[in-house]
Structure formats: structure tokens, C-alpha cells
Design brief:
Blueprint (H helix, E strand, L loop, with lengths): L9 H12 L5 H8 L3 H13 L19 E9 L4 H10 L3 E6 L6 E7 L2 H11 L3 E7 L13
Antiparallel strand pairs: 1-3, 1-4, 2-3
Helix pairs in contact: 2-3
Length: 150
């Protein structure tokens, strides 16, 4: 499979940097910062969306502010014949904030948002018949999710 390289000029890079910093920044504000007209910025953003570079705009919600003081990273290795059942369970349980399907000994690396260790046990007990797990509690996040370099 050949991947298309999506080159960005300096103006597009600047627009992306502003949007990464504040996705609610107005077209007018970005235009002032970049030194182009608002219609030019709107057109460039539309093209970045059409090219699939900008996939969407999201909220950054603090799990702690919603009562989830703990996060756990769980390595999940489905038992033979249980791969699809495990994936379905991960997709259905709201505590799983994100999950990557990976190569190697484990099939999934997942991030859970939890209120307590007891809640973690309850969630893992739902998986134990279908998979082996290894769990680490997150102490801090020195690097929050960020976009790839551009």
C-alpha cells in the first residue's frame, strides 16, 4: 500500500498550529495572526478538511473534573477464539476511553477512566473469562495526546 504524502506549506502549518492551540479560534483571528484574509483562511481550512488532514474538532475534557481521578493502561491478550468477543466488550464498556489494536503478544492496549481500584476490578472481572490482562495505573501524563509533527 502506498501512502500519499500530504505536504503542507508554511501558511497551512501556521493555521494548524493555531487550531491545535485553540480549535475555537475564529477565522478572523487566524487571518490576523497569519496575515491573510478571512476568505483565504476559510478556503485553506476547507481544503485541509477535504484532504483529510483536519478530521474534526473535539473537546478536551478533564476526566478528574468528571469524577475519574484514576486512569489505567490495560494490556489485553484474548484467549484463543475470543478476539472478536473481547473487542466487542471493549467497545461496549464506557470506561474504556481509548484502545489500540496492536501487534505482539498482546492484542489491545486500552486506557480506562476509573473512580477507584474497586471499579477497575469490576471492569476487569468482565474480561477475565475472555482474556488475560496486565494493568498499570497512570501516575501522570508528561505528554498529553498531541498531533504528529508537521
Amino acid at each position: 500500500m502506498i501512502f500519499e504524502v500530504k505536504m503542507l506549506d508554511q501558511v497551512d502549518q501556521s493555521i494548524l498550529r493555531h487550531l491545535v492551540e485553540n480549535a475555537r479560534m475564529s477565522i478572523k483571528e487566524i487571518a490576523q495572526q497569519v496575515g491573510l484574509s478571512s476568505p483565504s483562511i476559510s478556503d485553506r481550512i476547507r481544503r485541509l478538511e477535504e484532504r483529510g488532514i483536519i478530521r474534526g474538532y473535539t473537546l478536551d475534557i478533564d476526566p478528574k473534573a468528571l469524577g475519574f481521578p484514576l486512569q489505567a493502561i490495560v494490556h489485553i491478550r484474548p484467549l484463543p477464539g475470543k478476539l472478536h468477543a473481547v473487542q466487542q466488550l471493549i467497545e461496549e464498556l464506557a470506561a474504556f476511553g481509548e484502545c489500540d489494536k496492536v501487534t505482539g503478544d498482546d492484542c489491545y492496549f486500552a486506557r480506562l477512566y476509573i473512580r477507584s481500584i474497586e471499579e477497575l476490578d469490576t471492569i476487569l472481572n468482565k474480561i477475565v473469562e475472555k482474556a488475560e490482562t496486565r494493568t498499570s495505573i497512570v501516575k501522570s501524563q508528561p505528554v498529553l495526546r498531541r498531533p504528529p509533527p508537521f
